[in-house]
Prior knowledge:
With about 350 residues, this protein is of the alpha+beta class. It contains seven helices and 18 strands. The strands form four sheets. A nine-stranded mixed β-sheet has the order 3-4-8-9-12-1-15-16-18, covered by helices on one side. A four-stranded antiparallel β-sheet has the order 2-10-11-17, with no helix packed on it. A three-stranded antiparallel β-sheet has the order 5-7-6, covered by helices on one side. Strand 6 and strand 7 form a beta hairpin. The model is unreliable at about 1-25 (pLDDT under 50).
Amino acid sequence: MKRxxxxxxxxxxxxxxxxxxxxxxxxxxxxxxxxxxxxxLTVYGENAAAALEKELHxxxxxxxxxxxxxxxxxxxxxxxxxxxxxxxxxxxxxxxETALTISDATEGAFDPTLAPVLDAWGFTKxxxxxxxxxxxxxxxxxxxxxxxxxxxxxxxxxxxLLDGAQLDLGGIAKGYAADLLRAQLEKxxxxxxTLDLGGDVFVMGRxxxxxxxxxxxxxxxxxxxxxxxxxxxxxxxVTSGVYERYFxxxxxxxxxxxxxxxxxxxxxxxxxxxxxxxxxxxxxxxxGPDGALALRDDLxxxxxxxxxxxxxxxxxxxxxDGLADAFTPNDESGYTYEALA
Length: 341
């Protein structure tokens, strides 16, 4: 059966950002292509966007790209089980540590070791295909965070990928980049900015008139429309959905968010600080509505709080109580909206 396309919005605090009240004269904007997506960086009151653009390209090409032969991640993935030494201030081991922590917190729903499985489906290439059950079984035998040995040393870190494991940090990289860019902006004295990293948005401070940013959440079925508007300040808004990266074969639609247990696109019943927001969005999609809400409760008990907007494949938009005053539904969208206690 062909599944409807929809999306999950993880709101640690979009797809379309409005900045009512701002003018072009007050801002500096850069459009950047990095991490396989178009990014729009807008800084208000300070000319810092050019520096941010350079930072993004450096992070992508030199550190986190899985395909660029000069990147640190490429070198790690092709190390053939040899231990790789990293400096104390290197980005890659710090990001791996965060990814492993989130994987543990989500009981494996977020898994950074799915690189070979993503390759098998062709989502990292232009050769989309459906791998056989036997192929997936073999590939999954080389995945799991237990195959990543990360240790702190007196001089920095060591990383060893065991049993043919490889890392894909695409599910966390943009959120981590937003964390780094926020720190850079703060260092330069910027107090108002929007960083749209292609599905991961950080709104810094408030608009120059003192009001909250208004973020329009795209309708995953009709991307020319929207589900509603979220008002936010100093928050991350991250989405995971199946409406942009998918393919069809024999009348079946396959999307890129894989269930680490099966190696197949997650059948979740969903129509589908920054690093945590990015990774939790993927994990919540894999877990489905009930699992996502249970994870939210579990992490809240541990001091990590986030809100959710969930679009189900039966046409409902569910949003958690923390968004009651911040989310304005689009009454003309055709969806049924339900606030969750």
